[in-house]
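Molecular record:
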Amino acid sequence: MYSEWASLSPQIQNGSNENLSVLGKLPSTVGKEVAISVVKNLVANLGLTTQPAEPSSLSSDKEVQWCMEVICYGLSLPLSEHDTIRDCVHVYCEWLSAMESVPKISVPKPICDDPNLYARKIIQHLHNLFVPRKGEGTDTVNRQAVLCHRVLRTLQNMAHKSSRINQETWEALLFFLLAINDALLGPPTLKEDIGDQLCERVLSALFEVWLLACSKCFPPPPLWKTLRESCMRWRHRIALVEQWNRVCLALTARLLEFLYGPNFPELKISEEDAHLCPQNMSRDCIAQTWFRMVHTIGNPVELCQPQIVSQTPPFLQFAISSSNVVDPCQHPCLNILPSIYLKAIKGIASQVDAFLGIPKAALIGLTSSRSSTVHIPTTPNSGPPSASSITSVGSGSEPRPALAPARSRCNSILHTYGEWLFESAHIGYRSPYHVKTGAQPEGSVQRPSSLLLDKSGLSLPPKNPDLSDVPTNLTIDKFESGKAEAFGALCRIFCSKKTGEEILPVYLARFYLALKVGLQTPKDKTCGEVLSSILLNSADLFRCDLDGVNVLIPSVISALEVVMPEKDIKLRSGSVSKTELRRASIQLLLSLLSLPLHYQNLPIKELCPSTDKGNATHVTFALLKPRLMNILINALQAETDSVNCQMLLGGLMLSVQDSATMEESEKVLQPENAAGHESSSNLLSSGAAAACDNCSLADFPNISFTDVLADSAVGGVKFCFDYPKGLIRNSAHALFVRATYLVCHRLISSWRQDLNVSLAALELLSGLARTKIKETDALECKRAVKWLCDYISYQCSRPPPSHSKDLHSSIVAAFHCLSTWLVHHPDLLKEKENVMTVMEVVELGISGSKSQGKPGEPLKIKEDKELKPVSMRVRDAADSLLTIIMEQVGNVQNPCSPATTSSMLEEVSLIKYCKGEDVKKDKAVEWFRYFVIDNHILLALLEEPLGNDPDPVPTITAIVRNSFGRYLWHFELRDLPRSKMGLKTEEKDPGRPLPGRDKQKRAKKNIKFYPDSAERIPKCKMDGSIPSLDSCYSSDEDMVGHKLLGKLVEEAHTREQVTAKKEKSQPRHPNYECKPPPRKTEIQTSRLFLSSLGLINFDGEQGISEHPQLTVIDNKMSGFAADLELLDFMSPRTWDTVHLFYVRSKQTSAEQICNNVLKKDGVDPRFLLFLGSLGWPVDVYKHPGWTGHVATSWKLLERPRDLPPEDKNHGGSLFNGDHQVIYWADVSSELAFVVPTLKSRHLTETSAVHANPDITVPGRPLSAQGMSTDKPSRTLSLDLEKGPPNTASGVSLISGKDSPSAVRRRKAAMMDTKVVVLWVENFEDTFKPPIADLMSVTSTGLESGPLLRDRQDVFVIFLHPLESDLVRVKLQGPVGSKPLSFAIPLVDGMVVSRRVIGNLVRQTALNICRRRRLENDAQHAPHVRRRLKIQDFTQRYKCEMNVPELCLHLFNKIDISS
């Protein structure tokens, strides 16, 4: 840089004649006496004492110059003459005020006339003050330091305030500062000498004045070259590196301001450091000064080489004069070189972070050592606190800051700092690259881009030659902390690669070679500082499309095998957080899990090819899967941190899903022994497999719940087992088995106290239940269900102080997970043992206890039990599970399923079938009788035939509405079932068949009621126990009655005989043909139906008695039909909406983003495939379920005539809700995926609703529609069936009497969670997405108010396609959201295959919404809201009837109004 310029270093080292006085040629006693007497006179006129200042008597240049010769000599006196030296300093400091606009009165006139000339001489003379004196004591040295401080302060004030300084004076001032620094800092450090005391002060003065000179009079190149050479002689002083860091960071902060603008993250430095750079410095001046200052100390890597640092004349002179030191590098002051090197590399890393936009919280340790004593660090910090760009699914600690979108390109940073960082990363090894040497001048700086790799550079470089002369405390391993910093900075640079950015191949090659060396693991499995730094700072290594980065995968996996499987990591540095290190390792693992199945048999090239080609082995991606799975499972077994466990669970779900989907799509099982080694291919084995060889799959059911708790209490036992016979170890089935057992075991033994991990584990088990695995037997599923039931039982049985909202949330989630297993594996309930286990847990959830208690306890009859559930939410969850078991598990799906679990027929459609005409809802309900049973079942009975049966039999049609939906049953009163009715003839009256002419004679037989042997049996007293009829007459009246009865019987018998003779004598006549009586057409089928159900009964003398839980509903009251329709619009399942957007590169407005999906050419074809994997398309006008907007949900509509036709060339806009949406549902949830556009019809409808709050939207809370109510919300009582007298309609409404906290909770419960998926072409667009603008097109019609632009309750899932055809995932939650809000299986930073991305996004969105509902215990489940609505419906429309009125109501016909 300065090769063509002359250096001033010889003048500084050899001294100048300008600071020598003529008095020095005289005897010392004469010069001393002259100096003392002259200086005393001059000080007297300065006014430093009580006397005021007087004008100087020096009037000519000769007089002033003679006095200055004396003062110059006085400054060089021994420190024993402190008073004289002090007076000399006072005189010169006062005379320097001549550089100010108004000099002091005591300044001689010649100095005021030419201040710059005399100021230069004064500055040169002051050099004598700073020259170290040998043999002085500590006190005198301290006095000298005080005077030096006074001089430096005066010079700094002059430089700041004076406007009269010319260029020569600036150069003289800078030369003076260089000279005194060299005099003080050049020699080796001695404790408590003047150089040690003034080190930091003179350096700060030098750099501060130098920056001032740059802004006012830029120093010439010789001074810059001298500064660089001088600083290289002072590198054994730690204060130099601190001041260098201070100046470079201050200049970097100013440089970033005008390079990247005000929106770029600010480099946070102290206020004192911020004032180092004058405000009036121009941009060019800042840039030039910054570049020169960065290279001031030369190559920082030389700081780890004591041989180079000590090659200065003072060190050589010390080695010559000392008998103990043979080589200059053995001086004791060099022991601090490891700390100096660490601070230098940290300073470079901080500058790199500044250009990457990673803000620093504090840099005190880099720019000053005043806060702590400098010492040789044994375990220095491996990296700055914000060194990594790791972000996770929710963390207890603060998330690390993200990179700035406008950050510098990697090549630009590497051009500046790359050479130093690469060389620092290779210390201890001979560099595998070389510089093309030629006529390269010494000290010049070469751009790293011109460095070429040697042919032999691909092999692993050997270590440095013998360094026996270096002291043991300065060996290369002592500089590992600085080396780790260099690796961390390099990893951050390359991981900051932007989308589409190109990095020079030479940089990539050097980086990969460095990582190949840094990732080497020792035999003792110790994680060094270098390895820790690499893992902490390379989380994005495999997800930013670096060319050729896959060559590092084997080395990275080897490093992960050191860090992740063990619970206690062996770290060399105590400053590295084990939790953060494992978290960073998990991030790396999550980016590798999809690679084996994605590339399969593609070989991985070796970075350093082996010379022995015969023994060379080719590693393929498929061979790495067993190692990755072992790392994942063993890490999950050993992990204790909550966040890390959740991340690992997400990775485990990804692995199972990806393997199962690949096997299903390709119909190929993975090979038995892909790796060729038994140990590496074992997906089910763990680190403790050798300790549990006796455990087998058949033994697993014998492990009891108490045994698991006992094992976990010991803490040293790992849960593992051997393979079941015939199980392919690399198959999805093997991973499914291992995942199920491990997660269930840890859920009960270790995670039951942690809500977040418990929820993640339950979400994983739910995902496993949905995963289609070949050859899955019922035994595995049976064990999983048993574990879940044990988990629920344990959580419910915990003591009352442990019960909390979080505990109940985990129980509710466990019930939902259990229902998922039963629905997807209905064969489980075919076994009596499973049914008993599940029903006991349901009973526990509903009632709070089990009828079958512990062994030895008596059975509890359910009727005698007192209902004390754990909480109302737990009871509701158990009730939901019971309903799903009774209605959904193993049930043949209805024609509309899974779009709806309810019948689509209702009053209007039934009347249409019955009467053949269309009627409105308020007219159709008049044909029905309405009853409410048990305060939660609404029964509608239609007695009219539907017209679809030619047989006019008594019929009744029942519409049953309860908490879980609407069901329709049709009943007919028949004598025989339809299958036994026989064949029907076409003749109307076929007649009777002719009687037979031949009469058969019947043999007369005496009918005996008892056998003959009965008469031979002797009678006993028992035979006389039944008296004869005659003996029963107790009076004459009884006798008369008996005779009368006998006459009546005889008369009847006589009449029958006469009639029989008459019929025999008369011929047969048609009129006497027997015919069946006509059928009754007026039958009260409602009465018969209710009586058959036991809701009403005849009690003989008491007549008809009403069932205590049967309530008659008046369907003629106003508002009845509207409330009934509102009840039908309340879905018994949860409904959620996910909005999807396609973001092209650098798009920032909602209009641009929404217009991308209008045409197929505007989106990536992979985006359309992704949409197809989320669910199935449905027509919003023919779909009976949730459609993403309340206006078209849960009903069938006619297509509007003004609706434009469907665009076949769309890019996803077809699913904007106008024509179709993408839909998915199961027995308990509905999910609609909408791709919004600006032309959607729902936007206009939503705006109209918000503009007019009087509009009633079905499904919206009444309070959200502007309707006020004074009814209190649901109380958490156990008598749910009875219900409060004034229950809110359908949801928890806000009452004016509630407390503010209750109001806030209920308002929060009404808000719906927004889940948004953004497919981004450029990953930089994920840092500041226009979420606020996109909220305007995400209306569902259920919002409680207009869509706010600053809405915070938004979860964003970013999907970025990589060049490898994989998808990178980024998750962003609401500001300040709790960790509970995040869900798996997707994890921030995960890299996913496209074949499973749709399934994982759907599960994550569903789990996010479920967790948000769990967070707010004031939000009721859908079936609870329906039950509350029915209770309110009952209170509003019930009829109070007594028994006669009820009888009259049932016997009377329905009065249909005209």
